[in-house]
User: Which sequence fits this backbone?
């Protein structure tokens, strides 16, 4: 307590400012106030991707379909979606046969000729391998 | 005939005259024969124009004692006229006459009493000009010789008489003629008895009436007068042996013994004959004749007016006497036996142009009859006929009565007429019979192998018959057959027994009326109190049993093998029951029309009461007990059906191509595999392969009662598998239990592969998902007051239901219940058994949240926080997923979106709310009212994402967003933006939630000027979700229809 008592007013303000600045920077960094997203090449996405029993097929025209063989669904019975990839944001809008749209947004973390990785905001991660 | 007689008599008179002259001369010459002969010869020229000669003439007392007789020898008269004919007119070897000497001496009067001739020849000839060689007496005789002929007895022995008339073209000859005449011959008048015998007699006419007669041992006796050599009045009896009578080329009698007796009156010059008590006896057969015969002296025509009556003639004897020229070959194919008795008249002229008409009443007794082509023979024939024989025109036969026995024990009678008996006959016959049906098996269809019972038949037939042609059915002009069968039994192909106790059959053919235009030929009216058909191999049941049956049937010509059967009938029964292997039907009061136009086209009109059909799954439906597969009944059934059978059509229904009008009243179908009976109080359907019109279909099934109307088309493509069955229906119902109805419609029309999958799944897992009917495109407008689905009851349901090729769609179905007004669009289809699609678009307005959760518990899963609120909300929810065969959701296919808009809500004071309020440092005085709530939710697989929405409670405003999974793990964030910005994360399982204070995730989302890019993007997605959700809400009316 005594040592703190020897800091002058000026210095105390500077110290306080520095702490606040550091805290603010730390807070901002923790809060991802300046997120930096990687930009992925969308031309790598079209193709047939598989993870486990989940199958996704992306067409170059921005359409695709998905099916899960664990539920005894075949490719012919796959359900359609449209997709966009902006930087690292992959948006799938799944189209309902009855006419509705179900948007799903993911963050791509890896996309190359063989691997597609993305996750959503709720911590669900997917790693696909290109099949063909 | 008169001329030969007259000429004979004149010649006889001439001879007598010569004898008288000779006798007188003898007396004068003192009985010297030479002198007498010389005198006679010399004196003959005074009396005769022809040459006369005799060898001797003498008196005798010994031959004629006590009278004196004049005996002449070798008397010859010659009068040559024709070189081809002998010039001898008369030759008599011995001629004897008795004279009254006393009268001759005292009064010089020659009186001849007896006269006899022996061994002579009389040759009479008339040339073409009518000049006879017998005209030899001088007319200017001035002799003072007084004589008279007082014949008392004339005898002739062994005379030959020839007669030839060149003008009349007649010839006659008699050989060995013996003649005895006892009587008085005076002044050209003869009275007495005469007997004439000839060894042989021949007579022939060769003019237009080519008649010939011959006989042996001809004995003619006559007792009467012969006046002026012309008039005959006496009794004539003639016996002729070996009689031959011919006319033209026709032989009437051939070698018969003929006896003729008659009280005869005749005018020989006029050739008029009057016959009384005339009897012709031919062998043992008699013919009595009365009447007159007049022969025209100029034309030789014979005019007859005779009445005749026969004795009992033996047909076997008499028929051969009928010349073929008359009878033709009519009798060739007949066998006729028995006794005939005829009585009638012969009137008319016999000439080369005419034939007398013969009428005859014929009695046929003890007869037998058989005829080729007639497969019946008859015995005990008793008949009474009238025959009008008119060879120039038409011969008719009237059957006044005819009775006979055929095939031993069958009695028949007949009456009628046969026109033109000797030509192409026209028969009109009424026949009756008391028959044993079994005896006539060969007349009946061969398919029936046994017959029994009796029949009273009445046959009225008009037909033609030409003996020159084969008899066919076309010969029948009109026939009616009335048959009353008693205890009729028939056995069909040794299997099916047909029985009727009293069958009345009335047949008419050919018919002129054509009510059905099927070339009607036969009309059959059938009536019976009972008809049963039974399989004798399975006697425990009948196949068909009917009562009070009436048929009025027509067919085309059944006997024409070149045409197919056509058949039409009206029918009326009191009751009809039929049993097949697995089906039995019981019909009350069926009546209507059945038409078989040809083997491919038929029509059925049916009206009836109380129709019942039982269908079993085995061949044991043998009684009237209910079947165990289908029981169908109806109080009233009206059916009009037409069938056009197409051989090349594979589909059974289209092969029959039915056109049906069906009306039922109070019908009921109880089908074993269906939980409830299908009741149809009223049904009115018009059906054809192209179109089915449901005019009225009131149907009750379980708790459901509905009225269905509309039109179904595309039946033909549907059955061909090339198109959909299309329907446009209106369904009006007071109540529908959709659970029951879905069970009823389950799997209708599904592909075999799908059915097979269903059966396998059910067998394996017990799964039996509802399979939407395939192959149809049915649009049904529904107006339903109440409907039950699962456990929820809906009211005022209005909208459309589509079933299209395995897809069931409820379109904009407006409905209400206690919780809300709703609009539902739903789709269900079954591409395969373990991949069932279910999608719906559901809008609920003004629904109380607690009611919403109660009605749709899945809402609590989608938005668990909702149960923390109380109040009204508006709920829009669209979702779709594929299901497993047990209806488990395939979460990988689950897609959904929901929007909930609430207002004037109250936050319930739950434990969760308390935790949130505490963490966010809500004032204890915070009022828990919420003005509004508007949120969008998406469902993807098992992830339920709640998009950020703003919630204002009292002075606090918070933005809530997050995700929970269907395993009820939560990851939510509440961003308190007013009065301070602070965030609260709610994480974990529902019952173990962790509350962690953190940053506000969407602090500026609802502050446009400060909104971040990500927030903007999220809002856009919210808008996208909301728009697509609400786009299907048509209007408020749609929800309240």
Assistant:
């Amino acid at each position: 307590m005594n040592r703190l008592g020897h800091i002058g007013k000026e210095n105390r303000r500077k110290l306080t400012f520095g702490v606040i600045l550091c805290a603010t920077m730390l807070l901002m960094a923790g809060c991802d106030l300046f997120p930096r997203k990687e930009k992925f090449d969308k031309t790598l996405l079209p193709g047939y991707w598989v993870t486990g029993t989940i199958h996704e097929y992306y067409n170059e025209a921005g359409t695709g379909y998905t099916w899960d063989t664990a539920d005894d669904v075949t490719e012919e019975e796959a359900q359609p979606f449209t997709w966009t990839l902006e930087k690292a944001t992959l948006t799938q809008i799944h189209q309902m046969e009855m006419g509705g749209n179900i948007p799903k947004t993911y963050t791509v973390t890896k996309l190359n000729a063989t691997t597609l990785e993305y996750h959503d905001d709720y911590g669900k991660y997917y790693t696909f391998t290109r099949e063909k | 005939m008169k001329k030969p007689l007259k000429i004979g008599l004149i010649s006889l008179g001439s001879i007598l005259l010569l004898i008288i002259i000779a006798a007188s001369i003898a007396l004068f010459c003192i009985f010297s024969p030479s002198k007498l002969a010389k005198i006679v010869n010399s004196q003959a020229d005074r009396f005769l124009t022809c040459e006369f000669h005799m060898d001797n003439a003498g008196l005798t007392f010994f031959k004629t004692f006590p009278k004196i007789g004049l005996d002449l020898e070798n008397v010859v008269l010659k009068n040559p006229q024709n070189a081809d004919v002998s010039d001898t007119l008369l030759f008599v070897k011995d001629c004897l006459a008795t004279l009254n000497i006393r009268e001759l001496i005292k009064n010089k009067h020659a009186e001849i009493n007896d006269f006899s001739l022996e061994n002579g020849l009389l040759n009479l000839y008339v040339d073409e000009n009518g000049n006879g060689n017998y005209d030899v007496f001088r007319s200017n005789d001035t002799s003072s010789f007084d004589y008279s002929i007082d014949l008392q007895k004339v005898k002739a022995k062994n005379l030959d008489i020839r007669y030839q008339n060149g003008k009349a073209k007649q010839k006659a000859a008699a050989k060995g003629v013996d003649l005895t005449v006892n009587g008085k011959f005076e002044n050209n008048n003869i009275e007495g008895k005469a007997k004439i015998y000839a060894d042989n007699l021949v007579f022939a006419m060769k003019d237009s009436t080519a008649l010939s007669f011959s006989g042996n041992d001809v004995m003619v006796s006559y007792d009467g007068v012969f006046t002026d050599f012309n008039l005959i009045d006496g009794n004539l009896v003639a016996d002729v042996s070996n009689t031959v009578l011919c006319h033209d080329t026709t032989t009437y009698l051939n070698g018969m013994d003929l006896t003729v007796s008659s009280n005869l009156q005749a005018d020989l010059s006029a050739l008029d004959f009057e016959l009384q008590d005339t009897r012709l006896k031919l062998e043992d057969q008699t013919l009595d004749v009365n009447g007159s015969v007049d022969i025209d002296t100029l034309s030789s025509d014979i005019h007859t007016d005779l009445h005749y009556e026969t004795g009992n003639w033996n047909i076997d004897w008499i028929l051969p006497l009928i010349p073929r020229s008359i009878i033709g070959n009519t009798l060739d194919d007949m066998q006729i036996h028995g006794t005939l008795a005829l009585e009638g008249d012969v009137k008319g002229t016999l000439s080369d142009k005419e034939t007398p008409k013969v009428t005859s009443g014929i009695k046929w007794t003890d007869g037998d009859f058989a005829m080729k082509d007639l497969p019946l023979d008859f015995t005990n024939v008793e008949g009474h006929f009238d025959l009008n024989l008119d060879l120039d025109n038409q011969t008719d036969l009237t059957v006044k009565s005819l009775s006979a026995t055929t095939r031993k024990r069958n009695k028949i009678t007949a009456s009628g007429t046969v026109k033109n008996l000797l030509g192409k006959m026209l028969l009109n016959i009424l026949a009756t019979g008391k028959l044993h049906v079994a005896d006539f098996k060969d007349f009946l269809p061969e398919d029936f192998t046994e017959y029994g019972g009796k029949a009273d038949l009445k046959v009225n037939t008009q037909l033609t018959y030409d003996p020159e042609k084969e008899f066919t059915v076309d010969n029948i002009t009109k026939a009616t057959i009335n048959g009353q069968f008693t205890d009729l039994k028939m056995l069909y192909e040794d299997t099916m027994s047909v029985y009727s106790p009293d069958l009345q059959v009335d047949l008419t053919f050919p018919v002129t009326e054509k009510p059905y235009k099927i070339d009607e030929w036969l009309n059959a009216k059938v009536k019976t109190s009972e008809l049963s058909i039974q399989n004798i191999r399975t006697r425990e049941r009948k196949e068909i049993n009917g009562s009070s049956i009436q048929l009025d049937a027509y067919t085309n010509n059944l006997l024409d093998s070149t045409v197919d059967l056509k058949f039409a009938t009206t029918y009326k029964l009191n009751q009809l029951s039929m049993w097949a292997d697995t089906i039995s039907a019981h019909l009350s009061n069926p009546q209507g029309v059945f038409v078989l136009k040809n083997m491919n086209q038929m029509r059925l009109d049916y009206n009836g009461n109380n129709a019942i059909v039982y269908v079993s799954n085995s061949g044991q439906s043998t009684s009237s007990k209910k079947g165990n597969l289908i029981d169908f009944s109806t109080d009233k059934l009206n059916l009009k059906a037409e069938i056009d059978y197409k051989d090349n059509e594979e589909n059974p229904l289209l092969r029959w191509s039915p056109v049906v009008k069906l009306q039922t009243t109070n019908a009921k179908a109880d089908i074993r595999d269906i939980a409830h009976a299908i009741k149809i109080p009223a049904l009115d359907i018009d059906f054809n392969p192209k179109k089915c019109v449901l005019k009225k279909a009131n149907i009750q099934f379980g708790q459901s009662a509905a009225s269905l109307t509309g039109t179904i088309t595309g039946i033909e493509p549907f059955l061909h598998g090339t198109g959909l069955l299309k329907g446009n229906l209106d369904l009006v119902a007071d109540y529908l239990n959709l659970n029951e109805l879905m069970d009823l419609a389950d799997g209708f029309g599904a592909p075999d592969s799908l059915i097979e999958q269903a059966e396998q799944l059910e067998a394996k897992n017990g799964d039996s998902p509802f399979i939407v009917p395939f192959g149809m495109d049915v649009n049904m407008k529904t107006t339903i007051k109440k409907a039950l689905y699962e456990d929820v009851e809906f009211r005022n349901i209005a909208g459309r239901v589509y079933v299209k090729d395995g897809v069931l769609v409820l379109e904009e179905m407006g409905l209400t219940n206690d919780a809300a007004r709703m609009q539902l669009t739903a789709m269900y289809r079954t591409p395969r058994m373990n991949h069932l699609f279910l999608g719906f678009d559901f809008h609920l307005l003004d629904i109380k949240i607690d009611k919403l959760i109660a009605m749709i518990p899945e809402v609590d899963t989608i938005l668990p926080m909702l149960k923390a609120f109380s109040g009204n909300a508006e709920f829009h929810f669209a979702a779709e997923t594929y299901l497993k065969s047990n209806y488990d959701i395939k979460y990988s296919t689950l897609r959904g979106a929901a929007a909930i808009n609430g207002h004037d809500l109250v936050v319930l004071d739950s434990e969760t709310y308390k935790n949130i309020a505490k963490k966010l440092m809500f004032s204890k005085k915070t009022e828990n009212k919420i003005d509004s709530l508007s949120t969008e939710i998406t469902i993807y697989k098992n992830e339920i994402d709640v998009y950020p929405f703003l919630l204002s409670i009292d002075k606090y405003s918070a933005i809530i967003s997050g995700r929970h999974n269907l395993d009820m793990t939560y990851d939510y964030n509440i961003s308190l933006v007013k009065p301070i910005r602070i965030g609260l994360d709610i994480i974990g399982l529902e019952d173990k939630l962790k509350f962690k204070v953190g940053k506000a995730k969407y602090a500026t989302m609802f502050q446009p000027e400060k909104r971040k890019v990500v927030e903007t993007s999220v809002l856009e997605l919210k808008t996208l979700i909301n728009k697509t959700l609400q786009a299907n809400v048509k209007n408020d009316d749609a929800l309240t229809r």
